Amino acid sequence: MPGRAEHQPYHHGNLRAALLDAAERSLRAHGADQLSLRDLAREIGVSHAAPRRHFADRQAVLDALAEAGFVRLGATLHAALTRSESEGDFSARVQDAVSAYAHFATENAALCELMNAGKHHPGATAVTQAAATAFGQMTDLIEEGQALGELEQGDPEQLGLILYATVQGITTMVNSGAVGADQLDGLISTAVTQFLRGARPRT
Known about the structure:
The chain folds into 2 domains: about 10-55, Arc Repressor Mutant, subunit A (Orthogonal Bundle), CATH 1.10.10; about 60-200, Tetracycline Repressor, domain 2, CATH 1.10.357.10. It is built from 8 helices and no strands. The chain has helices spanning about 15-30, 35-45, 60-85, 90-105, 110-120, 125-150, 155-175, 185-200.
């Protein structure tokens, strides 16, 4: 039809969700540096101005992706901890939670890289809060271990950071190809076992 706009009218029920889905696909395929609002609009079939209804610029999309990633990670950790709660075995709860994180990090490598960078982006308050909520569950788990006498007393966040750094190193090696993905579960199990042994209260 003569004079018809180049872009088709918007038909999605939720523009923001559609944009974030497209952004995550772009992130996986091309990395954060290649993401653009114009390309996202083209992919989901809206005008190039439509994304600005929800995102002021490209960085706003990246921040929203990072925040959503931490929300998903938090739900993943919560599910793992809930499943193991009835077992009453603290070491098993740590293994389950850490394994859940490790699989999330290796199955969503590009997203996790963005999440880790997003925590330190100026003004990304929502990202920082989502990260604190997700990882706060691990701090709670460390405090639980201290209350049970399974872990030494001290700053639970510092203990958690030691465990996180170890696991992060393993997942980074898997994501880079330095270690095969088939070794992930064994390495995580060994790392958690050694952490628990090292953090056990001295008698």
